[in-house]
Amino acid sequence: MIIVETPRLVLRELTPNDVGALAEILGDPVVMEFSTNGPCTEDDTRKFIDWCLESYREHGFGQWGIADSSSGAIIGFCGLSQVDLNGVQEVEVAYRLARAAWNQGLASEAAAAALAYGFSQCHFDSVIAIIANRHIVSARVAEKVGMKIDTYTKYRDWDVGIYRKHLEVDLRIS
After folding, report:
1. Above 60 in pLDDT, residue 25?
2. How does DSSP classify residue 41?
3. 50-64 burial, b for 16+ CB within 10 Å, e for fewer?
């Protein structure tokens, strides 16, 4: 199921058929350098997709596959997930792209689309991004889509910044 389309991307629900393509991306140690789980095996990727499918059923959102709109090829994932952050339930936007898709603004394009969906369709008040303090590129993506640093904390034994974006409400009176 297609969730949202952007000029260059399609965010869609992942399926078991995506295991091979996504495992190639998530198995790359460079792509996964800042993942608290590290590089994934094909079995890890299958479990990740199963977790995504459960999230779609349970919550109506999850991490979605990012497909190149012209070729249809999976180039990563981006979406929204529930996360427990220091005992508080939050909604997180996350993104991972194949190295071949880096430095083209695609992570920002996908994250902006996921955030827009979260605010308009899921009616979230705010969404966070959990970003390793050393991951400057990911922090730039978060800032580019309007997220601001909220706090610094530990997450899974990593030093991280918590970026947050609030629902923007237009208070102008017409």
Report:
1. yes
2. -
3. eebeebbeeeebbbb
- DSSP code, position 156: T
- In eight-state DSSP terms, residue 114 is H
Nearest to 96 by CA among 123, 114, 69: 114
Read off the DSSP letter of residue 144: H
Give 171: exposed, middle or buried? Use CB within 10 Å, 0-12, 13-18, 19+.
exposed
Q: Work out the number of other CB atoms within 10 angstroms of the CB of residue 159.
A: 11
Which of 119, 139, 112 lies closest to 61 in space, CA to CA? 119
Q: Looking at the predicted structure, is the pLDDT value of residue 169 above 80?
A: no
Alpha-carbon distances, residue 61 vs 36, 50, 57, 114, 133 (angstroms): 22, 13, 8, 10, 27
**Which residue has tokens 């994250």?**
111
> Bridge partners of 4?
11
Q: What's at 141, amino acid-wise? A: V
> How far is residue 26's CA from residue 41's CA, in Å, rounded to a whole number?
8
Question: Which of 65, 64, 97, 96 is CA-nearest to residue 81?
Answer: 64
Q: Are 42 and 19 in contact (CB under 8 A)?
A: yes
Based on C-alpha coordinates, what's the Rg of the chain?
15
Q: What pTM value is reported for the model?
A: 0.94
